[in-house]
Amino acid sequence: MSDNIERNEEYLMYVEKQTPKTGWFNSLFHAFLVGGMICCMAQMFGDIIKAYNPTMDILRVGSWSSIIIITITILLTGFGVFDRIAKFGGAGTFIPISGFANSIASCAIEFKNEGLVFGIGAKMFYVAGPVLVNGVAYSIIVGLVYTLIQLF
Amino acid sequence: MLAAIFMYVKVFCVGGLICLIGELIEIKTKITPARILVIFLMVGAILGGFGIYNYLVEWAGAGATLPITGFGNALARGAIEGATSNGLFGAIGGGLMATSAGVAVSIGLSYIVSFFVKSKTKKS
To answer: How big is the A-B interface in CB pairs under 8 Å?
Structure first.
């Protein structure tokens, strides 16, 4: 038993040694660069939409620019390009809404072989599910607390 | 013109910084990306619930709305707006209503795209 644990530790050290180190300063810089660029793109789309529809509500402009980013991400995922950007950008690609879209699209493609219902239907939300479930739960809590505050 | 450039600098810095914090957490603590997403979502929902995040959205635009913290903020903000205009019904449904378009596009388009793309990784 102890031998087993020792070997496990050895193995973990081996894995640690073998995983390529990109230097944490570099990866932080990449995340900053890619994340900032994706946000700037969204801002640009928002500005373009606003230039054509000056009367549009600012929240709706934000939603539209998010939708454009989501569409681009899913198409890039379909073409297999997004993985390369994600490898470079790290958190810079999965923290913006593009990460959410990419996780749904890539899981749908990956589990396609397992069928429509239990493949795509169920496993599409393997990563995005926790985000959606938690998000909806928090929003209900916020709404209920706010309603209670309004009562008094 | 100068104001527009300054706005883009703000968007870049705020969006980049939020991603940088996420990357820092991932490197230093080895928490998986899915958990980091949920943590960021929670932070956004809490800040949005207190109305603090809206100031950041006003100041930095897409730099604040596009990261997943902005998604959490949109959920909380939608719930608050629903509660003020539609009472209990709005409080429950408002969050989903505010974010419904983005989520629907993600799901629908992924579904369509998955029909056209062959999966490379799983070849049983």
So the answer is: 258
Q: How many domains does chain B have?
A: 1
Report whether B68 contacts A97 (CB < 8 A). Answer: yes
A residues 68..107 contacting B (CB < 8 A): 69-71, 74-75, 77-78, 80, 89-92, 94-97, 99-101, 104-105
> Rounded to whole angstroms, how far apart are CA atoms A42 and A46?
6
Contacts of A28 (CB under 8 A, 6+ apart): B20, B23, B24, B27
Per-residue pLDDT tens for A7-59? 777 777 777 777 666 677 888 888 999 999 999 999 999 999 989 988 888 88
Is residue B31 in some structural domain? yes
The answer to whether B12 contacts A70, with C-beta atoms less than 8 Å apart, is no
pTM: 0.85
Q: Is residue B15 part of a domain?
A: yes
ipTM of the complex: 0.89
Query: Are the beta carbons of A39 and B105 separated by less than 8 Å?
Result: no
Q: Which domain holds residue B107?
A: 2-115
